[in-house]
């Protein structure tokens, strides 16, 4: 276990088969005394970087026990990215096992209430959507790709809060498609598309290799401080409704 600032780099050890060998993760613990509702955080395609650590820290600051499994534990983004996206589309594989391992680790903690959500960004948003039917109480999908069989993926899904940017050229129409599917299934939801935001707009800075930043900006990828506060307000309100049980 390594403490980095107010975050803890830990080993994720559970009885889930098929996880990454020596799976690691980043844990954020709220200030004060628990127990707290818990959230599994699924990172973007660039892996466990400074921007994703900020998201874990932000969730802990809001009062959630937050654990981000490193889906690239066995070789980094360069080695694991293709296989991880393949698992995302297939709906099964090592990445889902890693997410389940993180979920079980949080549920087993004495400082957790037992209520648990999942939140994902970019690639992680796709996983958060696909995992909404896998024993989570609420899911936050942030500019995540939609599966081809969306209706099937939403079978038995928990409540979902989803956020997209209208300038995101990679996900045109995704917000409207997801909201229609959730509405038709009667799944509690809050879906919003921000007109001035693009992909990865919740990051504070451009992520990934610097050489890609000009191309990313052309594709509508990058921070949008204007839309970020309202997005987090909605996520926090949604999680508080579905994860936090107020005392009688």
What does this structure look like?
By secondary structure, the protein is α/β, with parallel strands linked by helices. It has a single domain (2-243), classed as Alpha/Beta hydrolase fold, catalytic domain (Rossmann fold, 3-Layer(aba) Sandwich), CATH 3.40.50. The chain is 35% helix and 21% strand. The chain has a 9-stranded mixed β-sheet with strand order 1-2-3-5-4-6-7-8-9, with helices on both faces. The protein starts with a strand and ends in a 5-residue tail after the last helix. The relative contact order is 0.13.
Q: Count the beta strands.
A: 9
Range of strand content:
15-25%
Gyration radius, rounded: 17 Å
In DSSP terms, counting alpha (H) and pi (I) runs of 4 or more, how many helices? 8
Low-confidence stretches: none
Q: How far is it from the N-terminal to the C-terminal residue, by CA?
A: 37 Å
The overall average pLDDT, rounded, is 93
Whole-number total of structural domains: 1
Instruction: Tell me the name of the CATH class.
Output: Alpha Beta
Largest sheet, spatial ordering of strands: 1-2-3-5-4-6-7-8-9
* CATH fold field value: Rossmann fold
Structural class: alpha/beta
From the 3D coordinates, which CATH architecture would you assign?
3-Layer(aba) Sandwich
Shape: globular
| CATH homologous superfamily heading | Alpha/Beta hydrolase fold, catalytic domain
Task: Give the biggest beta sheet.
Answer: 9 strands, mixed
């Amino acid at each position: 276990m390594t403490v980095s600032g107010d975050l803890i780099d830990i080993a994720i050890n559970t009885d889930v088969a098929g996880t990454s060998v020596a799976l690691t993760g980043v844990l954020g613990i709220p200030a004060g005394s628990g127990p707290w509702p818990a959230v599994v955080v699924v990172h973007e395609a660039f892996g466990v970087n400074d921007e994703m650590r900020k998201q874990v820290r932000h969730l802990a600051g809001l009062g959630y026990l937050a654990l981000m499994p490193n889906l690239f534990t066995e070789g980094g983004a360069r080695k694991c990215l293709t296989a991880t996206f393949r698992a995302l589309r297939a709906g099964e594989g090592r990445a889902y096992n890693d997410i389940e391992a993180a979920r079980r680790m949080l549920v087993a903690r004495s400082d957790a209430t037992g209520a648990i959500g999942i939140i994902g960004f970019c690639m992680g948003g796709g996983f958060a959507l696909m995992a909404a039917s896998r024993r989570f109480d609420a899911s936050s999908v942030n500019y995540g790709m939609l599966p081809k069989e969306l209706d099937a993926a939403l079978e038995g899904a928990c409540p979902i809060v989803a956020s997209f940017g209208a300038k995101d050229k990679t996900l045109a129409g995704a917000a409207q498609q997801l909201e229609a599917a959730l509405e038709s299934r009667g799944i509690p939801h809050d879906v919003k598309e921000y007109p001035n935001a693009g992909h990865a707009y919740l990051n504070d800075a451009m992520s990934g290799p610097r050489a890609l930043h000009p191309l990313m900006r052309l594709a509508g990828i990058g921070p949008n401080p204007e839309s970020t506060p309202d997005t987090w307000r909605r996520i926090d309100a949604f999680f508080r409704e579905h994860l936090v049980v107020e005392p009688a």
